[in-house]
Amino acid sequence: MIQEILNFTKELIEDNPEITQLKLTPQPGLYVFVDIDENGVWTNADLSKGKDYDYYDGKNQDIVLWNDCIRYQEATNYISMNKVKAFDSKQKIHSCSPFAIAYNFNFSATDKESMGLKKEKTMSEDEKKNMEMLLREKRMGIVNERLSDYKKCAFSIYKLNEKQEQNLFPNNSKETFQYKKQLEAFYNQFDTILSKVKCIPEYQKLTEKDYLKVFLRSVPIALQEQLHNKYIEDNLLNGEEVDEKGLLGFLTSYSSKKMFMQHKTSSAIKGYSYRFSKNDALTLYSFEKMWKRKCFPNPLPIVIDKREINNEIVRIFNLESEPISYRELLKQVFENTKTAFLSDYYLLNYRNTKDGMVLNDFDFVPLYRYKFDSSIEVKNITEAGYKKSEAFEKDLDERIDNVFDFERIIVRAIFNNALVKIKEDSYTTNYFGDIKPEYVLGGDFMWQLIMKYRKAFYDYIYKSKTNAITATMFDDMMYNSILSNIRQDEIKTRCEYNNTVKLKINIWFSLYNLFNNNKKDDIMASTVTDLLEKMKAVAKGESNIESPEEFAFGAGQLASYLIDRSAASNKTYALLEPYLQKSKSGQLQDAIAQTIAVYKHDISVYKGTFELLSAQVLTYDEGSDMKPLLKYFLAGCFSPCAVYTKKDDSNNND
User: Fold this and answer.
1) pLDDT recorded at residue 518
2) How high is the pLDDT of residue 40?
3) Which of 207, 543, 613, 653 is deepest in the core (most CB within 10 A)?
4) Which among 415, 404, 422 is positioned nearest to 478, based on CA atoms?
5) C-alpha distances in Å from residue 630, one per residue of 142, 148, 483, 576
6) What pLDDT sits at residue 151?
7) Which tens digits make up the pLDDT trace of 551-572?
8) What's the order of all strands across the beta sheet hosting 29-34?
9) What dihedral do alpha carbons 239, 230, 79, 16 form, nearest 10°?
10) pLDDT on residue 145
11) In Å, what is the CA distance from 24 to each residue of 98, 164, 225?
12) DSSP assignment, residue 625?
């Protein structure tokens, strides 16, 4: 994996050097630039906005010193927060350069409580402002206390007290840093500098997470960048170096305290199977920074030996100010490159967390299928629809041309808008992140179903693993998805009127053969439409039930009709569960017969549709196993009930 990322990044930077600066922004906060002359005199003490300081609120990018803020920030920034300890063991000062002091005003909840500054929801705006002012004062005091140690560590790390390269020192000095007087004055007068900074109006706007960054502008920025790059190069690798190679904190660092994570059986030196050169470390560091700035799509396809396609993918993704979706990206890539498919690439999926980057998935994709060989149609076999202006309108059949239509329509419906979520114009997916059961329609039951199958859908959609979902898996997820509705939903008017369940049944029967590789075992030999017509004929005395599928469908029709007879208020679909728990057809027949006995006073059976249909269902004798027939039973429950045929041919007028 690492080698593929290295090759991708190196080629990308070679072809587009400007990519390393893409989407760079300052951190929100106040940026102050200090000029001190060679005599140690602070020459711009009367700080002027747009010349000596600027403020970035995280939104408005129209600031005069925008480019300077970015450049100085990058020349003084830390590698990781853990490495800040080398400069300030207490991690109160966050810059990693002797030429800058940067910190925010964020305190832990414990620290705030110890200072009597606990934030309350009921606090007024004035109280919040007073608290932020106290936090700024407290942090300023702490920074002053840490300044001496920070200076000492920064000078040591940058080797400013040692003999440096010749261009860093005046010709008449052997060991004195050329800008030492300016630097010493910067630290000696820092308290005075802060007192001036406090008078800047924008200083009072700084909240807990905003930064105050003070830069010594007297030292040329090119020199600061040179020294900072050397610091980065020397400190990216972790642990003991062997042959100028070491470990890297890019998904590969193993703590010496966690012995179980070290490859003790490998032939590599000291148990580590792979070490990186400094050049590789810098390349991966560049990749990680660009990834964090969202310069790459997620997931990221890394195509082998086709750098022009990799360049095109990154170019398209960064054309707009707002990132485009992966589905839209692929659509444009196929259109722009005149490519019918994408082949031989690695698909990398990450997520950013508070603890850093987490690898979700990395896999090789030999051939990616964007469009299906032929359109797939989800037929409205259960006659789902809505009343509009007193007329019933059936939903149209859904046509699916590509895998992202499949994701948008099918996956969203199966998992109740929790795995694939569409709200207004927002379309999001969550194949790897945390999902809280309390926010999932269907609760723990649906949440467990999502956890069980979401990776399979990711592989099917994003990696074209057509065998990732089998017919058995599809049956299981569809049945349990419908069961989640049965356990949660209320019945309004007739039992059959549940369009959410109807849609799922439509999907179940329309798409089953998409996942069924055994063509001899085609359960779609008779469709729901055929079964419904057959039940109407049976209910009129014109035909007989002749197969287990017809029996299960007819039993579902009866169960639906019997539930309609219940006079209970706030009826729920949980009334179906006793029927679904029957493992044999005879047990189901007994349950239906018992329910008929309960509601016999409300059922007219004399030569009616109910009498004819129930007679066929209750006398069908095959001793069938109900598990493979449950889909037909549910289809019968939620299709228009044939019992109503005689008096209501429209089936949907209530």
Assistant:
1) 63
2) 94
3) 613
4) 415
5) 69, 75, 11, 12
6) 96
7) 999 999 999 999 998 878 789 9
8) 53-56, 29-34, 211-216, 100-104
9) -120
10) 94
11) 23, 31, 16
12) B
Distance CA 619, CA 590 (A): 11
Q: Pairing state of beta strands 385-388 and 245-248?
A: unpaired
Three-state secondary structure call for residue 290: helix
Mean pLDDT over the full length of the chain: 87
- The string of pLDDT tens digits covering residues 417-441 is 999 998 877 789 999 989 999 999 9
* Residue 526's pLDDT band (cuts 50, 70, 90): low
pLDDT tens profile 393-423 = 889 999 999 999 999 999 999 999 999 998 8
How, if at all, do strands 385-388 and 371-378 pair?
unpaired
Looking at the predicted structure, is the pLDDT value of residue 256 above 90? no
* pTM value surpassing 0.85: no
Q: Among the residues of 45-203, which ranges form H helices?
A: 66-74, 109-114, 125-157, 180-188, 190-197
* Pairing between β-strand 211-216 and β-strand 100-104 as defined by DSSP bridges: antiparallel
Distance CA 369, CA 364 (A): 14
Nearest to 441 by CA among 483, 507, 485, 384: 485
Rounded Cα–Cα distance for residues 386 and 392 (Å): 6
Q: Quick one: which H or E segment has residue 240?
A: strand 237-242
What separation in angstroms does the CA of 434 have from each of 348, 359, 429, 449? 19, 14, 11, 14
Torsional sign, CA 47, 51, 52, 54: positive
**Helix, strand, coil % over all residues of the chain, rounded to 5:** 50, 15, 40
Spell out the residues 6+ positions from residue 434 whose beta carbon is closer than 8 angstroms to its own.
none
Among 121-125, 291-295, 630-634, the range with the most confident prediction by mean pLDDT is 630-634
> In residues, how long is the chain?
654
For residue 564 the two structure tokens come to 């309609």
d(CA 441, CA 488): 9
CA distance 215 to 68: 10
Which residues are 103's β-sheet partners? 212
pLDDT tens per residue, range 113-135? 777 776 666 778 888 888 888 88
Helix axes 528-539, 548-565, angle to 10 degrees: 70
- What's the pLDDT at 267? 41
Interval 40-78: pLDDT, tens:
999 999 999 999 999 999 999 999 999 999 999 999 999
pLDDT(351) > 90? no
Reported as half-sphere exposure (CB side, CA atoms, 13 A), residue 2 has a value of: 18
Per residue, what are the HEC states of 555-584?
A: HHHHHHHHHHHCCCCCCEHHHHHHHHCCCE
* Range name among 322-326, 542-546, 647-651 with the lowest pLDDT average: 647-651
What's the rounded Cα separation, in Å, for the pair 116 and 130? Answer: 12
Q: Which residues pair with 358 in a beta bridge?
A: 351
């309390």: which residue's tokens?
438
Radius of gyration of the chain from its Cα atoms, rounded to whole angstroms: 34
